[in-house]
């Protein structure tokens, strides 16, 4: 999992000028197996199980404004109506995790 920290190097730019270079990436059929490589906090803990993450299709773009835009394909040809994200668990019925996404970027 510490390798995820290194992924930020792809998005990090040196601040040479005020202009941000646009970037575009297409990711298709990516399987990530995330394994915790830090020692567990509790010595008697057997450690965590690997997390498998499959990305069927995703596009990441950075505009001249410096904002990253992430979009994905729902896998059903765009027939699924837009709505809030849904969490599906094998042990529970589907439930809404969050409402609609914010319309404006959130500045912290």
Concise account of the structure shown:
Residues 72-95 are annotated as: Disordered. The protein is mostly beta strands and 108 residues long. Helix content is 8%, strand content 35%.
Write the layout of secondary structure elements.
Layout: H1 2-6, H2 8-11, E1 23-34, E2 51-62, E3 68-72, E4 86-89, E5 92-96
Antiparallel strand pairs: 1-2, 2-3, 4-5
Q: Please, how many helices?
A: 2
Distance between the termini: 26 Å
Strand order of the largest sheet: 1-2-3
The proportion of residues in beta strands is 35-45%
Helix content: under 10%
Order of helices and strands: HHEEEEE
Q: What can you see in these coordinates?
A:
The longest helix has 5 residues, at 2-6. With 108 residues, the protein is mostly beta strands. Helix content is 8%, strand content 35%. The two termini are 26 Å apart. Strand 4 and strand 5 form a beta hairpin.
List keywords for this structure.
108 residues; mainly beta; three-stranded antiparallel beta sheet; two-stranded antiparallel ribbon; 2 helices; 5 strands; 8% helix; flat
